[in-house]
Amino acid sequence: MVCRSALRCCLLAALTCCLLPCCGGNITVAVMLPDNHHKYPWALPRVFPAILMAHEDLQSKHGLLLGRSINILNYSTEDPVAGSCAESRAQVVAVDAKLYIRPDAFFGPGCVYPLASVGRFASHWKLPLITAGGPAYGFDKREEYQTIVRSGPSTTKLGDFTNALHTHFNWTSRAVVIFHDLRQDDRPHYFLSEGIFLNLKEEMNITVEAQPYEDDYKEYKDLINFMKDRGRIVYICGPLETFLNIMKLFQSEIQDPENYAIFYLDVFAESLFDCRMSPGGSRTLAYLYIWCLCFPLQSVFIITYRPPDNPEYKDFQQKLHAKARRDFGVHLEPSLMDYIAGSFYDGFVLYAMALEETLAEGGAQNDGISITMKMQNRHMWGVTGLVTTDNKNARNIDVNLWAMTNQETGEYGIVSYYNGTTKDIIWSQTEKIHWPCGGPPLDNPPCVFSSDDPSCNDGHLPVLGIVAVGSGLALIIFGISSFLIYRKLKLEKELAGMLWRIRWEDLQFESPNKYHKRAGSRLTLSQRGSSYGSLITAHGKYQLFAKTGYFKVRLITVRLCASFQMRDIQFNHLTRFIGACIDAPNICIITEYCPRGSLQDILENESINLDWMFRYSLINDIVKGMNYLHNNYIGCHGNLKSSNCVVDSRFVLKITDYGLTSFRSSCENDDSHALYAKKLWTAPELLIYDRHPPQGTQKGDVYSFGIILQEIALRNGPFYVEGMDLSPKEIIQKVRNGQKPYFRPTTDNRCHSEELTILMEGCWAEDPAERPDFGHIKIYVAKLNKEGSTSILNNLLSRMEQYANNLENLVEERTQAYLEEKRKAENLLYQILPHSVAEQLKRGETVQAEAFDSVTIYFSDIVGFTSMSAESTPLQVVTLLNDLYTCFDAIIDNFDVYKVETIGDAYMVVSGLPVRNGKLHAREIAGMSLALLEQVKTFKIRHRPNDQLRLRIGIHTGPVCAGVVGLKMPRYCLFGDTVNTASRMESNGEALKIHMSSATKEVLDEFGYFDLQLRGDVEMKGKGKMRTYWLLGEKTDVYVI
């Protein structure tokens, strides 16, 4: 325990206090509970914070035991190895506490067997024992457990509820109790159902049969036979998983489930805990619903404790969870288990009230007999509401009864609750029980469990009755025979008339190069596509799902299979059969054409945005079509897949390729990859055949539907498995192996709802019997698709609006992409050419050369660069120049200059063009030069960090001519003597100095704040002697405006 060290200190203090005579006013309470808060609702991390809260509120809130201090110590009664309650450990802890601590009262244990032992000790020691656990029937024996007080629920009170329930429905004869019992640990389900068995048997005089079961699935069939032979009112108490397994077997074995009423004893509502709360307060039993999808759940009821609805309990829950997290480091979720902690809180307050009354009468604080007698037949308001006890010191509890209140969605709601204080059942005014037969079943139907009634004897029918029955059967047989004969004659007449036959010459076909002009199954192929490639032939850049043509001005689809019986099929979600051609070798059938293509192509087209309203509409269309097929004489599809689900012009999905079994097997002439790719939707039980039966099975269709659901949900192609790149053949082999865990596609609750994941996993279950049929899938999908309740017209308009919005979004996206690429191209162009020149070229104009009267040109290079390059690798040289010029480029952005070019270590910049700036060009170049020179002094060379770059700079001012030269890789170049002179200024300069001509000096003198130094007359190649100057910096004593 987290607080174990602190508790040792409390233990030492309690020992010291007990040894001192002045501590007689202290009260010592020993709390004995297990540690496992996941397994036990009365575990220490759940209950001990509640007892501490009651202790804190005792004097301040309730005004009890003023002037007295209470020492509360806790002990674990759990076996640390087994992680469960241990009777022997509880006995040792109780005896040690009595010898060394001398407690005045015990709280706990909660488990039955440890409570029985400690309860006998407490009765012998005349010490009160208060607990909210220990629900067993045996603790009602006051002569053996005379000091036990149960402030929480007990099995006897559950039995009182079932007594009232049987009285209300007039079930007075028979009942069955089935409970899970491993005969180890604390046998919780045995003791919980014990009160129902004994109360019905002893107080109602009902014949009650009890049957335990273990975790062996083979025993479940014996349970079903036990229910058949012994009763129709059944109480089941056990883990949720075992209950669901029993219900699945019940569905397959029981022929008349409407004649049963099954009550599942789930006192802490664990079967309802993970289910979503609806605004009306009812919950949907999601796990039970999907596991027993075919089971008539109207006959299943859930019995739970009734949670307190007073505001004090809500505040208590929040404080309890916070204290448990702080003191014990455990995170508790709100649940009915908090009711047990609240009952311990109320038990502590009730004990304090009885103790204070005993002390006021002059009694001792450890007089358990007097204290517990004062706790009998008490009424008080606690955090769990009204607390009342009976003459056996057992609390009266309230119970909820849950039943299915919505047969379409499977939602469960509270139909009644039992008031334990008044022993009345209060029935809901809004939620009713929907009995399958209109009323409650009989607990002792006639001629089932007893044949004493004379009407049950096998007597002989009178002669008149035999004649009537025989005549009726004869008429029925005659009518059926006549109908079959008439239908056969009618079919033969239609066959003779060949109304369905179409000649090959009557069909008009278009060439592939015309498909882009007229309607056809031709959505552009997706850039992604499924991971297994398209299963259909592609002509050009358009995907063609089937060959199309015209017959009597109607566009139709031609498929190489035939069945004239399909003329009888007329349904909105199935493609309409037009006719058939049997002119060899052109054997085919002609069906209605759907211009939007197949579902597979729509899912693989990334440009089509499918919201969940649209996806649920497509799913609903598939379910409706398959439900119609399964209830038609065709029976099943046998080849359901996304490419066989086509969409018409109104965005209504229709199923095709049904009822074509006679030709399907002969059409499989594809290569190995295509053959295995077509089997991705095939159920495992059909993959064991090299060529599975073409007619398929209904459960196989459900499996195929599950694969299509995953396609629609993730849009990653059929049988997408995250993180695995498998070929269709490898996938089929893994599915066919059938080894656990079964190989199935990936589901992702981030992309779709958890309910859809449950439906998918149910559809592709390995055992066909566990897969739901399309009738129940239709109900389940209707619950998921909230928009499906709107009218067909509204749904169609919404689909059209979605399609239009999709196109608008696509155009907007493409436009933004175009503008972004245009911006990138313009930025690149502006980096190569001046902005004004680039704008002229964009407008398609010829860039004329332009003369500029006065500009200032900057040249610089690196002294010793040649020797440095010889000592460095080419990559190091490139890295050096890139670092240097990146640094220079960042600096020149702060000045009105234009970078002309870089050649090797030479760097050329000009100011005053292409946009003229008066005489500011000299100032801009001078300021830039000083900034570059200052920066280069601190520049670090990566591969030679100890060396300093020595930059040599030359500046000259004069006229130039500028223009764009060349067609390929055009460059903006400068021409004129000013360029040569500026280059000479640089080459005749010195390292880390700025060398300028007298022309530049004259312009800078007009600004008056540059510090210049005369160098003298310098011989220039091709120029003779020129007077030049050094630019030293800017004057600090001059105020610049």
UniProtKB/TrEMBL annotation:
InterPro entries per UniProt: A/G_cyclase, A/G_cyclase_CS, ANF_lig-bd_rcpt, ANPR/GUC, Cyclic_nucleotide_synthase, Kinase-like_dom_sf, Nucleotide_cyclase, Peripla_BP_I
PROSITE patterns: GUANYLATE_CYCLASE_1, GUANYLATE_CYCLASE_2, PROTEIN_KINASE_DOM
Signal peptide interval: 1-25
Main localisation: membrane
Catalysed reaction, written as an equation: GTP = 3',5'-cyclic GMP + diphosphate
Domain of life of the source: Eukaryota
Keywords: cGMP biosynthesis, Coiled coil, Glycoprotein, GTP-binding, Lyase, Membrane, Nucleotide-binding, Receptor, Signal, Transmembrane, Transmembrane helix
Name used for this protein in its record: Guanylate cyclase
Organism: Takifugu rubripes (Japanese pufferfish)
